Amino acid sequence: MLKGNAIIGQSGGPTSVINSSLAGVIDAAIECPNIDKVLGMRYGIEGFMQENIVDLAAQDRKIIDGLRSTPSSALGSCRHKLQEEDLPVIIELLKKYNIRYVFLIGGNDTMDTIHRLEEYSRKQNYELCGIGIPKTVDNDLFGTDHTPGFPSAARYMTLSVQQAGVLARDMKRVDQFVVFQCIGREAGWLPAATALAKKSEEDAPHILCLPERPFIREKFFADVEAAYKKYGFVSIVCGEGIMTPEGRPVSASETRDKFSNVEFGAMGGASAAIGIHSMISSEFGFRGEFQITESLPMCGADRGVQLDFDEAYLCGRTAVKYAEDGKTGVMVTLERGAGQGYSCVTGEASLSDVAVRAKPMPDNFISEDGNFVTDEFIDYVKPLVGELPDYVKLSDISYK
Predict the structure, then answer these.
(1) Consecutive sets of 10 residues in the chain, 400 residues long: mean pLDDT of each?
(2) Binding residue per annotation — 138?
(3) Known catalytic residue: 203?
(4) Cα 132 from chain centroid?
């Protein structure tokens, strides 16, 4: 096993549980005899290149313990796309600070960063252990059953749709529809999870618009009309990245980030929910609402799932264990146990298989008509989100 210092970074969008993974790495790294100092990158790899480094082992014990329930990214984040000219700079800094262990917590783009850094280090004959720790509310990382952060975000979105659905039901004489937008560029895991809110046929949501299926205007109008005739109001949940069959974002956004990802929230009025709202109003003359949460499900710790916090911490500790075992170039994964009841253990996936790829929902999780989910998906997501509240409805007992 290598002897030297370790450094930890967080990048990309936060989650409610990302700091629990950070705490897991810190705790396990402090216990590791071959890791001397436990350092942190302030603002990800971008901050590291500016030598913005903190001593994590020197933190008060209460702070490290508190990370396990604190939302957002305690180290600060970045969305820096690693350039070829960055790599020699980073290697020199790793040498300067005798860093032999790099742990990065993040999503697809973060896994690309650690993969390229670990690969470049080998080419330069610099012994380095690089381990990725999964994080994304989008749940779109390959190789893992689910990602830390997804269960809590899914619960946030499901509760929001459930409560907004009760409001929409009772206000249907005023507003005939509501559109709820979820984050997620290419994968519909979050909007799909809101199907858990539907405990009876009338309950929201009625229509799911998922990025895995093309948004066909005429079919969508037919679905809206059918739901309105049946329930007197329509609840729609859409993914921010839904596209027309021609590949045009329904949001009409054309802004892209440094990783060439469409920035759905960067255009002010450009969003899928607003576009859908306009379509329905124009086609049916309905009055309605749209609700766009943006980053709220990424930091809503009050709706966090304890299972999620615990698994995030486990992933952090497991990353250090893999390093102790001499592994490198891998991402920690979560593997669901077989049989009845939910159980989960950690595993690993090669960073080369994970980096810059999005894992869409499989076909067996999406209904045949493409506008809802199957029972198989409900079985998959229910143990992650946990029990939801039961809301009552007045019985239709007329007074005579």
Answers:
(1) 95 96 98 97 97 98 98 94 95 98 96 96 97 96 97 98 96 97 92 97 97 97 98 97 93 56 50 94 96 91 96 98 97 93 96 88 97 98 97 91
(2) yes
(3) no
(4) 15
Q: The tokens of 188 are what? A: 């519909």
pTM of structure: 0.93
In the chain, residues under CATH classification 3.40.50.460 are 150-301+360-385
Binding site annotation covers 288? no
To the question of whether residue 125 is assigned a binding role by annotation, the answer is: no
The burial class, CB within 10 Å (0-12 / 13-18 / 19+), for 106 is buried
Q: Is 137 annotated as a binding residue?
A: yes
Which of helix, strand or coil describes residue 294?
Answer: coil
H or E element that contains 9:
strand 4-10
Q: What is the CATH number of domain 4-136+303-354?
A: 3.40.50.450
How many CA atoms, within 13 angstroms, populate the side-chain half-sphere of residue 180?
28
Is the domain spanning 150-301+360-385 CATH 3.40.50.460? The answer is yes
Nearest to 14 by CA among 64, 76, 66, 82: 76
Which member of 86, 138, 140, 308 is catalytic? 138
Any binding-site annotation on 109? no
Task: Count CB neighbours of 339 within 10 A.
Answer: 6
